[in-house]
Amino acid sequence: MLKAALRDSLVYGLASLLSKGLVIFLLPLYTRVLSPGDYGAYDLLITLGALANLVVALEITQGLARYWADAPEPAARKRLASTSLWFSVLMYGLFLLIGLLAAPQLNALVLGDARYLDAFRLGVGFIAVNGIYYLLLNQFRWELRSKAYALASVAYALFTLLFALVFCLWLGLGLVGVMLAQLMAALLAGLLCLWLLRRTFGWLFDAGQLRAMLRFSAPLVPAGLAVFISLYINRFALNHFGSLEDVGHFGIGSRIAGLAALLILGIQAALTPLVYQHYREPQTPGQIARLFSWFMSVALAGCLFLALFARELLMLFATPEFMAGAALVGVLAPSLLLSQMYIFAPGIAIAKKTHWQLWVTLLSAMASVAGNWLLVPLWGIWGAALATLLASSLFFLCWLSLSQRLYRIPYAWRALLLSSLGFVVCAGVGVQLEAMGLALPLTLLLKGLLMCVLLGVVVVCGLLPLADLRAVVQQLRRLGGSARV
């Protein structure tokens, strides 16, 4: 399983790096055609899309993932996949109809400004089409077709870049152009996925299989809502207690911090289906622990890099109006990773204890709501960032504790703790360097030394032993193009 996880993680990770990297290169364009307030409106529309993806189709893709490995016959799998697709098309179609009919009222509620109504309508269309695209994209994961996943992901990013240049730079449509570019990219990428999956889907629908998938996935919806609240209530709190400009500054900081998520996207896409297939094998817990240690070594270094060089990155990717978001990156990058690292603690999913997931995420959501309600009025965007870190940390620690009861993983606790402490110290020193106002070359040199210090701590503490590092390098060199498109 470890070799397959590394192989597919590499492919998924490279695809995510290319696709998300291309989107990052849109930031210079977006921050020049959008004011901080417009960018805040864009961020809220994307946030609304994340909410819709959780609730509209009742997380049916999770039900499909759970039952896919248990349906070895091609005909049964085709019926299962087709049922999930047509159910999703129906639900997103209803969402689109209701969203367009109620657009004036919903726009006033979410964005609070009638000048964004056209962009809101396009946003509703994008959310519906994008929901279908994500279901199709995830199908490649269940079929272990990492190359096809990569092709579709990169195509989506290229379409987004192309249409953004046309609608925003050439035609000067502002926020309307941004949302139109997103809609067209999702539509074309979805059609590409359908063509690549033409043998997977058919004009089939099985009500019994739908009920089985929904019995697994529907209880995940409240948990998904709780996760959404934990991660995204900060935008609505900032809009309520502050302004769309605050949302824009927070959003740009989140985009830079979101580069940390590239570290987990590849593993996340590869690991879940592999764990479902191999969790009964005695060597699997040790392999998951080893993979987690490798991941944390890279994640700590990646988060420190973003924290230390956030200002320099924003100087490249944004205008001076957005520079207030740089200071938040050191808090938001670990927050985003903590909210996704549950994949390394699979006990709850394996045991199908979805009600446990609900209670953990509800606790995290309550912490996020309380934190934002208390801290945003006091400290604005800083309060929102700290509340997000609190909620993400609580979520991961509770999830980890419960998962260990159901499926024990032998994590390297001492190495994890010492390496995390090293990250905190190095990040704190980096904050002091920024405050000292040293010359830029000297500042960059000292930041580079801090990166080396953390890497040394990771190796000395045993989180990434030199033997493991050599093993990873050798394994990556041996990986060929064995994944089929």
Description:
InterPro entries: Poly_Biosynth_Transport, Polysacc_synth. The chain crosses the membrane at residues 12-30, 42-65, 85-107, 119-137, 149-173, 179-197, 218-236, 256-276, 288-310, 322-344, 356-375, 381-400, 412-433, 445-467. Keywords: Cell membrane, Membrane, Transmembrane, Transmembrane helix. This protein has 485 residues and is an all-alpha fold. The protein is 81% helix and 0% strand. The protein has 21 helices and no strands. The protein has helices at residues 2-24, 27-33, 36-55, 60-68, 74-101, 103-110, 117-142, 146-170, 174-196, 207-217, 220-241, 244-257, 262-278, 284-317, 329-338, 347-350, 354-379, 381-406, 413-436, 440-460, 466-478. α1 (2-24) runs antiparallel to α13 (262-278). The longest helix has 34 residues, at 284-317. The radius of gyration is 22 Å and the shape is globular. The chain starts with a helix and ends in a 7-residue tail after the last helix.
**Uncertain ranges:** none
Helix content bin: over 70%
Distance between the termini: 20 Å
Compute the number of strand runs: 0
Biggest pleated sheet? none
Count of DSSP helices? 21
Overall 3D form: globular
Structural class: mainly alpha
Radius of gyration: 22 Å
Mean pLDDT across residues: 88
User: Secondary-structure element order, as H and E?
Assistant: HHHHHHHHHHHHHHHHHHHHH
Sheet-strand content, in percent, reads under 5%
Descriptive key words:
485 residues; 21 helices; mainly alpha; globular
